[in-house]
Specification:
alpha/beta, Purple Acid Phosphatase, chain A, domain 2, 2 domains, six-stranded mixed sheet, 14 strands, about 45% helix, about 15% strand, disordered C terminus
C-alpha cells in the first residue's frame, strides 16, 4: 500500500518540482515584494501596519510592480553594457534581506504558536487539578517579540557582513587524496581547480588579477576550470580572458562550460577561449595528458541540465567515453554540475571536479558542524568533498557570485588537490 502511494506521489512531486524551478524567479520576485511590505508594516505599525487588508494587498502589488520594472531596467542596462549603479545594488540587498527576515518571522511565529498550544494545555490541566489559573500569555508574547526582533537584527548584521567583507574573502583549500590507479610517479602531483568565475557585472578586473596571481603562487601542475567562466551575454570577455590566460601550470589548463556559459552563448564563449587563451576546452570530449611518463585520461562534459538549477544524473556521452579508457588507468572528469557523480563513481572515475552550486553562497553553521546552505535544495552534492566506492567528487564553491554580491560562511574558493598513491596513503 505504501509502495503504491509512493508510486502515485512520485510523478506529482516531480511535476511540482518542475513547475517550481520553471517559475522560480517569478515566485522569488513576488516573495521579495511581499516581504518588503511586511517589513514596512512592522517598521511603521501606526501607518502602514494599521491599514485594512485591501490596502495591504495593494501595497504589496505596488512594490511588486516597482520591482518588476526595476528588474527590466537593470536587464536593459546590462544588455547595453552599462554598469548597474550603487543605489540599485543597495536596494536589491535590502530587498533580499527583507525576504530572509520575513522567513525568520514565519519560523518564530510557528514556534510561538506551538508554545502557546503547549502551555495552554498545561494551563487547562492545572485548572482541572489545582483550580488555579496560570497566566503565560503576556510573558510568552513578550519573549517571542524580543526573540523575533533579535533574530532579524542578527540577520541584518550578518547580511551586511556578507555583502561587504564576506563576499571578498578567498579561501585556498588543499586536499590530499589517494586516487585509484594513481601511478607512483604522480605522488604529490598538484591539480588546482577553479570554478564559476562569472565574468560579468559582479566581477572586477582587479579581483580576477588577484585570483590568477594567487593560483599561480600555488605552483599547480594542472589547472582545471569547471564551468561558468562567463556570466551573461554582456560579459566583457575581450578584457577579462587575457587576464585569465595568465594562469600557469606545468601541464596546462583544461576548461569545460557551464549553464551560464550557455546562457552567454556557448559557441561564442568557446571561440573566445580558444582565441584569447591557450586553454583546452572540452565539450563532451575526451583527451589524454602525458604526466611523468604516465597517461591521465580527462573527460570534459558540456553542461547537461534539467533546468537552471538541477543537472542530469546520467549522461550517455560519459558511458561512451569510459568505454574507450583502459580499466587500469586513472580518469579525471570535469562536469560543471555535480549530479552526474553517481554515474561517474559507478563507472570507475577516480576524481570528478564540479562547481555550479557556489556552495549556496549563504551558509548557516549547524549543530553537526556542517554549513547548511541553499544549494541543498538543488542537489545532494552541495559543496566540498564526497566519496563513493573509492571515487571522489569535489564541488567547488567558486570564485564568482551570481544574483546577489553576497557570501556568508561561504568564501570564494581555490582548491588544490595533491595526489597520493595507494601505497603511500595506506602507509600514512
Amino acid at each position: 500500500m505504501r509502495g503504491n502511494l509512493a508510486a502515485v506521489l512520485q510523478p506529482i512531486r516531480a511535476q511540482a518540482a518542475n513547475a517550481f524551478f520553471a517559475n522560480f524567479f517569478r515566485l522569488l520576485l513576488a516573495a521579495v515584494s511581499i516581504s518588503q511590505w511586511v517589513m514596512l508594516c512592522r517598521l511603521l505599525p501606526r501607518t502602514a501596519g494599521s491599514l485594512p487588508l485591501p490596502w495591504n494587498i495593494a501595497g504589496a502589488v505596488a512594490i511588486y510592480l516597482f520591482n518588476r520594472q526595476l528588474a527590466i531596467c537593470t536587464r536593459r542596462r546590462q544588455h547595453d553594457r552599462n554598469p548597474v549603479g550603487a543605489m540599485p545594488r543597495l536596494y536589491y540587498a535590502i530587498a533580499f534581506t527583507c525576504l530572509v527576515c520575513v522567513l525568520s518571522l514565519l519560523l518564530t511565529d510557528a514556534l510561538w504558536i506551538t508554545a502557546k498550544v503547549f502551555l495552554g494545555a498545561i494551563a487547562v490541566e492545572a485548572r482541572s487539578i489545582h483550580h488555579t489559573h496560570p497566566r503565560f500569555d503576556s510573558e510568552l508574547d513578550t519573549m517571542f517579540r524580543w526573540l523575533a526582533n533579535a533574530v532579524m537584527v542578527g540577520i541584518a548584521l550578518s547580511f551586511a557582513y556578507g555583502y561587504t567583507i564576506g563576499q571578498r574573502r578567498l579561501r585556498v583549500r588543499q586536499l590530499h587524496l589517494p586516487l585509484r590507479h594513481c601511478p607512483p610517479a604522480w605522488e604529490g602531483l598538484r591539480i588546482l581547480q577553479l570554478s564559476d568565475i562569472h565574468i560579468g557585472r559582479n566581477l572586477e578586473q582587479g579581483q580576477l588579477e588577484r585570483f590568477v596571481t594567487r593560483a599561480n603562487a600555488l605552483g599547480p601542475d594542472l589547472v582545471c576550470i569547471s564551468g561558468d567562466i562567463a556570466d551573461s551575454p554582456t560579459a566583457d570577455l575581450e578584457s577579462f580572458l587575457p587576464m585569465l590566460a595568465r594562469l600557469r601550470a606545468t601541464y596546462g589548463v583544461i576548461a569545460v562550460l557551464g549553464n551560464h556559459d550557455h546562457y552567454a552563448g556557448a559557441d561564442q564563449v568557446e571561440a573566445a577561449l580558444r582565441r584569447l587563451t591557450p586553454f583546452r576546452v572540452l565539450r563532451d570530449e575526451q583527451t589524454t595528458i602525458e604526466i611523468r611518463g604516465q597517461t591521465l585520461h580527462v573527460i570534459g562534459l558540456d553542461d547537461h541540465g534539467r533546468d537552471w538549477a538541477r543537472g542530469k544524473t546520467s549522461v550517455p556521452y560519459l558511458s561512451a567515453a569510459m568505454a574507450r579508457v583502459p580499466a587500469d588507468e586513472p580518469i579525471l572528469l570535469l562536469s560543471h554540475r555535480p549530479d552526474v557523480f553517481p554515474q561517474a563513481a559507478e563507472r570507475g572515475v577516480a576524481l570528478t571536479l564540479s562547481g555550479h552550486t557556489h556552495g549556496g553562497q549563504i551558509g548557516v553553521p549547524w549543530f553537526d558542524g556542517r554549513i547548511r546552505n541553499l544549494a541543498e535544495f538543488m542537489t545532494d552534492f552541495d559543496r566540498g568533498l564526497f566519496e563513493r566506492g573509492g571515487s571522489y567528487l569535489y564541488v567547488n564553491s567558486g570564485l564568482g557570485v551570481t544574483g546577489q554580491r553576497i557570501r556568508l560562511n561561504t568564501p570564494r574558493e581555490i582548491v588544490v588537490i595533491c595526489l597520493r598513491t595507494a601505497a603511500v596513503a595506506l602507509a600514512a
